[in-house]
Amino acid sequence: QLQLVESGGGLVQPGGSLRLSCAASGGTLDYYVIGWFRQAPGKEREGVSCISSVGGGTNYADSVKGRFTISKEDTKNTVYLQMNRLNTEDTAVYYCAANFAAYCGDNWHLSSEYDYWGQGTQVTVSS
To answer: How far apart, in whole angstroms, are the C-alpha atoms of residue 92 and residue 97?
Structure first.
């Protein structure tokens, strides 16, 4: 069974950067769409970004477009989320999730599309 482990969260000042990692075991990410989600206190979980297993196509939420970049390193079976120009509204627990599919599709931002989830990593943006 596929297992996902996130890392790289922490405390950062506004305007700073972080890179999150999502390391997979128990299966190859060659067959999985990977999504990044986040959940802030008192708010619903929201889709942040997605990368397709075929072709590497990407999707982003409007709130992070131009600031966040998702990428995949096949040799390490790992997906990354590079987050730049962070602001306080980016504070949340960030999760990666996997869907056994080729492409992100129109519903990539829905939690229900994903079968496997990591435990989450906290990102706090504060001065």
So the answer is: 16
Distance CA 40, CA 31 (A): 29
CA–CA separation, 42 vs 50, rounded Å? 23
Tokens standing for residue 45: 């979980």
CA distance 99 to 18: 25
Count of all residues that appear for the chain in the document:
127
Confidence of residue 68 (pLDDT cuts 50, 70, 90): very high
Q: What is the pLDDT of residue 61?
A: 98
The radius of gyration of the chain from alpha carbons, rounded to an integer in Å, stands at 13
Cα gap 91→16, rounded to integer Å: 12
Residue 54 pairs in a beta bridge with none
Distance of CA 41 to the CA centre of its chain: 18
Average pLDDT over residues 43-49: 97
Residues 6+ apart with CB under 8 A from 87: 14, 15, 125
Query: What values do phi and psi take at 38, rounded to 5?
Result: -145, 155
Residue-averaged pLDDT of the chain = 96
